Write a sequence for this structure.
């Protein structure tokens, strides 16, 4: 074993790339976000880690809804731009065709492959960030991203992000069926 | 716009694939986990969503430490196996060379490309899951996974997971530099 210690400020490999939609001061705004995870099975809850200083954090606390929107790899420039400029200075909603769903105040991006509108359930207060937990009220996609009625990641062609080297990546080759490929090891004394 | 509604029980595209290490009833155990996100910048906090019924949830609550271990794509069978069988029935620690770090009770996997040992900071109680938030105390890798001192995802070759279609994927092509490629859009009226 040749383990070396690296900076404990280590990231998830890789982060998915999403755009969080929120209304702030009466305007739709979108922020690039990689800190996201499902956190509960039933009901479907999803959590996002947002820096306390971000304009998006202010909007979510006020309106108590947000959306998650997946850019595809062709949208890499506009997705990155949404992570570079603040909604306090730039009208990022003008970059997209914006639509609304059941919640009426969670702006979503028509060009995205998958959009989820979420209702804020809980805010976890952490030293530099908020972790906002929302219930997924509805999810929107298009038929062209589905195979046999399920989202097909190769058709979605989403972006991945690695930090702190700050690179975007696409999804590569199929590597096996989950909850199946491991069955080969059953019977090896277990 | 041709949006269609799908089941709101929608997932993150894609989830990273990790193995969570914990001591339960005096033994090291490892569970496959895809619900994971960084949640705070300073200090470095990471959160994991674990079903309340899992053996791992019991261990984390008792010992108040856990580890995150990244399998590479060659470990797909053993990683999947750790998600199929429960530590209540199978000694999964015997599948790996296990090592310990500063915390002394967060078992880590020597074969992993990246291991983080974490100290439990907060437990968010949700209807079907716990969301455990831990501080990353130390991170371990090997020189062969680094480029210019930083983790190189192409050398790590981690696994990705999509649900509910339940497929594993590898990381594909480089798609741009984050916080740089979007600068091309600056000046377009913004």
């Amino acid at each position: 074993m040749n383990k070396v210690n690296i900076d404990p400020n280590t990231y998830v490999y890789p982060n998915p790339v999403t755009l969080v939609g929120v209304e702030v001061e009466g305007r739709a705004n979108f922020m690039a976000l990689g800190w996201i995870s499902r956190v509960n099975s039933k009901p479907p809850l999803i959590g996002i880690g947002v820096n306390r200083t971000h304009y998006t954090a202010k909007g979510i606390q006020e309106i108590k809804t947000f959306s998650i929107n997946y850019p595809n790899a062709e949208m890499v420039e506009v997705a990155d731009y949404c992570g570079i400029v603040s909604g306090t200075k730039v009208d990022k909603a003008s970059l997209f065709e914006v639509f609304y769903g059941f919640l009426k105040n969670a702006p979503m991006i028509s060009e995205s492959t998958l959009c989820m509108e979420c209702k804020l359930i809980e805010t976890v207060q952490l030293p530099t960030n908020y972790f906002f937990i929302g219930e997924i009220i509805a999810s929107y996609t298009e038929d062209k991203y589905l195979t046999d009625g399920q989202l097909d990641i190769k058709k979605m062609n989403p972006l991945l992000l690695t930090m702190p080297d700050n690179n975007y990546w696409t999804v590569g080759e199929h590597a096996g069926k989950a909850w199946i490929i491991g069955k080969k090891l059953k019977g090896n004394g277990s």
